[in-house]
């Protein structure tokens, strides 16, 4: 995924902030998070919590994105830590606390929000509280409903998150950044270029923009 370093710099993960990555299935949330984790691990220690894939499956994502398993283990094994257990918000916090204290982790990726056990209305609040308390950046992915695909322009907008949070958009105050993923080639077979658009729809401490990544 080209320009991932540039995208990571433009998105600017800040300690104490919560970032939400949202898109329809097959937009590439996990792949993007894996590539971001690899890029950011040059200077930071990363914790990747996967609630969808086993640690072995997740490792294969990292191996493929990096080049091969040997190179990844040699260069990144002590910088990118993976967890595939703990589905409740309490268990997630226990993992974050443990790895922050014992390993000095400063960026956490969680894949993905709908698989976290608990009241959805409390999840974003809890994740934002953790980001502040442990002074880390937390990136969580989420899946948008099919309603996005019922209109001509299928690029997501903030109102597409309403069904996810029972139409309570006040909950969107908790994420500091909300970034939508969109691939036009997924919907338009005539589109030859595999470009991933990162639509920065909310950015509390920065500008709104769209970042284009070539797959």
Q: Uncertain regions: pLDDT < 50 for 5+ in a row?
A: none
Shape: globular
CATH class descriptor name: Alpha Beta
CATH superfamily caption: P-loop containing nucleotide triphosphate hydrolases
Q: How would a crystallographer describe the biggest sheet?
A: 8 strands, mixed
Quote the average pLDDT.
89
| CATH second-level architecture | 3-Layer(aba) Sandwich
Helix and strand sequence: HEHEHHEHEHEEHEE
Biggest β-sheet: strands ordered side by side in the sheet: 3-2-4-5-1-6-7-8
How many domains comprise the coordinates?
Answer: 1
Rg result: 16 Å
Q: Explain this structure to me?
A:
It is a single chain. It contains seven helices and eight strands. It is an alpha/beta fold and 215 residues long. The protein has a single domain (4-214), classed as 3-Layer(aba) Sandwich (Rossmann fold). It has an eight-stranded mixed β-sheet, with helices on both faces. Helix 6 (120-134) links the parallel strand 4 and strand 5 (137-143). Helix 1 packs across helix 2 and helix 2 crosses helix 3. The chain is globular and about 50 Å long. The model has no long low-confidence stretch (mean pLDDT 89).
List the helices and strands and how they pair.
Elements: H1 4-11, E1 18-23, H2 29-40, E2 46-50, H3 55-66, H4 69-76, E3 80-83, H5 89-103, E4 107-111, H6 120-134, E5 137-143, E6 177-183, H7 184-187, E7 195-203, E8 209-214
Parallel strand pairs: 1-5, 1-6, 2-3, 2-4, 4-5
Antiparallel strand pairs: 6-7, 7-8
Helix pairs in contact: 1-2, 2-3, 3-4, 5-6
Provide key terms for this protein:
Rossmann fold; 215 residues; 8-stranded mixed β-sheet; alpha/beta
